[in-house]
């Protein structure tokens, strides 16, 4: 099918809206739909009336901000040196960072939302030491129910917000620690990508170090051009925008038709949808030691490790051949995990 980009997406939505039977219309357009996170990935970044993080150096100001000063217009609000604060004026910056990490870091946040338009909230995992070993089987006891809008939930949240709301300088120093020293776990596509692409300033994306997502895939990434585009955009997003990742874990849940298509696809013809995964995993591991893990039906796959194994077994092969063979082996292992 010809891909008309956003115009094609608009046409499909319009077809459903004007149809006398939306249920019938949705069934008709199903073979042409993309993946559920695609629209989020193509959204423009959010904007704010002014930056919350202060430019710690005037050289970071834009030309327009400097012209404002010359024109006697009040320049963008700056943060004071806070000389009256012993914490900010006497402690070295490196020591302050250690303190921020002790206060804000070392936790696992389970993030969720009621629907795509509702507020994203979180609860703190009470068994963080087990999350790596348990994978998709990880449970946090009754924490989810105990910490939903309640007094204890508000108290836990205020402890995180207090340092960030103290002053603009402390916010500027501490906010990267909040995203970089904790593990963020999402169980919904709309909550994860609504947060990353619609609510969070894009300059914060490289701050993330550990990210986990339970991802539901309603259709095969190779079903049509839209799904293929969305799948490629997903891995490009992880590779080029979340550039600080050191651990990326995706638990992928597929519907039966998607699993059937995987089982019917020859392993040597799977590179069109697995190559973006392997490329991102290999490049991220080489650049910063990032480990990409994909769990399907309880079986964990490490694309970068598969690439290393294939390269070792084919020492004289060209890079393109190694990549194709890596995708083939990866697909074979996914098929096996489906049983």
From TrEMBL:
Superkingdom field: Eukaryota
Pfam families for the chain: DUF7730
InterPro entries: DUF7730
Residue span, DUF7730 domain: 81-278
Name of the protein: DUF7730 domain-containing protein
């Amino acid at each position: 099918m010809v891909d008309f980009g956003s115009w094609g997406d608009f046409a499909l939505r319009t077809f459903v809206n004007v149809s006398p039977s939306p249920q019938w219309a949705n069934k008709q357009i199903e073979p042409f739909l993309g993946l559920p996170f695609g629209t989020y990935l193509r959204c423009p970044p959010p904007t704010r009336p002014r930056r919350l993080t202060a430019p710690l150096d005037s050289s970071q100001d834009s030309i327009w901000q400097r012209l404002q000063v010359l024109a006697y217009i009040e320049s963008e609000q700056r943060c004071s040196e806070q000389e009256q604060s012993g914490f900010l004026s006497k402690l070295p910056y490196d020591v302050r960072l250690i303190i921020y990490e002790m206060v804000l870091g070392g936790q696992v946040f389970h993030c969720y939302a009621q629907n795509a338009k509702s507020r994203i909230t979180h609860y703190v995992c009470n068994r963080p030491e087990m999350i790596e070993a348990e994978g998709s089987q990880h449970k946090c006891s009754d924490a989810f129910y105990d910490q939903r809008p309640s007094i204890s939930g508000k108290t836990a949240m205020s402890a995180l917000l207090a340092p960030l709301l103290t002053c603009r300088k402390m916010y500027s120093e501490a906010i990267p620690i909040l995203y970089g020293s904790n593990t963020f776990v999402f169980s919904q596509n709309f909550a994860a990508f609504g947060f990353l692409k619609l609510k969070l300033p894009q300059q914060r994306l490289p701050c993330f170090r550990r990210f986990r997502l339970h991802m539901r895939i309603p259709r095969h990434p190779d079903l049509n051009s839209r799904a293929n585009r969305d799948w490629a955009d997903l891995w490009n997003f992880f590779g080029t925008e979340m550039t600080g990742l050191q651990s990326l874990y995706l638990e992928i849940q597929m519907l039966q038709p998607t699993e059937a298509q995987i089982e019917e696809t020859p392993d040597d013809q799977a590179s069109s949808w697995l190559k973006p995964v392997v490329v991102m995993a290999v490049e991220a591991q080489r650049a910063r030691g990032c480990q990409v893990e994909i769990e399907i039906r309880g079986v964990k796959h490490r694309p970068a490790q598969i690439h290393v194994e294939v390269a070792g077994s084919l020492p004289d092969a060209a890079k393109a051949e190694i990549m194709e063979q890596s995708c083939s082996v990866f697909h074979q292992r996914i098929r096996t995990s489906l049983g």
